[in-house]
Amino acid sequence: MQHLPKILLVLYIILFSILAIEPYDRATWLVENIPVLIAVGILVVWHRSFLFSGTAYILMWTFLSYHTIGGHWSFERVPFAYGNQLLSSLGLDFILPEGRNNFDRVGHFFVGVFAYPIVEFLVRSSLVANRFVAFLFAIFAIGFWAASYEIIEMYYAVIEGGTSGSLFLGSQGDIWDAQKDMLLDMCGAVLFGFLAIITVPKDHKN
């Protein structure tokens, strides 16, 4: 299990390198991948002092890879027809409407995977009094990031304008896009945070 982070890092580097070739819009690709690369860098450095569980690393790798795929095509242009058909069958038309590429909405839900490593770190490091406090902290942390990212999108879209600004904003004509994205971020955080508080033992060893 100790080698899993290195394996996932190599797989991510391969994926990133492939998707860095001729993205749909280079400026959009750059701004979409900056936060991802920062997160990868932090995990690489942090690996020296704290080793997350295999579950946490796989969850984080899944989201980072998903986001990198979105950055290559821009989220509203990712080939996702089959996924959209499956999502439309859920009947959640307000959040996942037909006629819209919901690849980004799924991505926002999976932002919540980071609640798992947050809870795991707090519990295993004994930094909080109990698991419920760790759960709440993870929810608030994800909520703060969700709101901050929407503000960053707005700022970039206003300053950059044009195709790149529109692609990065990714609202696809939905005036409630930011609110729906934040809702899905929080829903994902609740799910994965709850998963963490019931599965991560305090004395967990990798």
Care to describe what's here?
The protein is mostly helical and 206 residues long. It has nine helices and no strands. The chain has helices at 4-19, 26-46, 54-73, 81-88, 103-111, 115-124, 131-160, 162-169, 177-199. The N and C termini lie close together (6 Å).
Radius of gyration: 17 Å
State mean pLDDT (0 to 100 scale): 93
The rough form would be described as globular
N-end to C-end Cα span: 6 Å
The number of helical runs is: 9
Number of strands: 0
- Low-pLDDT windows of residues: none
Structural class assignment: mainly alpha
Main β-sheet, in a few words? none
Oligomeric form of this entry? single chain
- Percent strand: under 5%
What percentage of residues falls in helices of 4 or more residues?
A: over 70%
Describe the SSE topology:
Layout: H1 4-19, H2 26-46, H3 54-73, H4 81-88, H5 103-111, H6 115-124, H7 131-160, H8 162-169, H9 177-199
Helix pairs in contact: 1-3, 2-3, 2-8, 3-5, 5-9, 6-7, 6-9, 7-8, 7-9
Q: In a few lines, what is going on in this structure?
A:
With 206 residues, the chain is an all-alpha fold. It is built from nine helices and no strands.
Distinctive features:
single chain; globular; mainly alpha; 206 residues
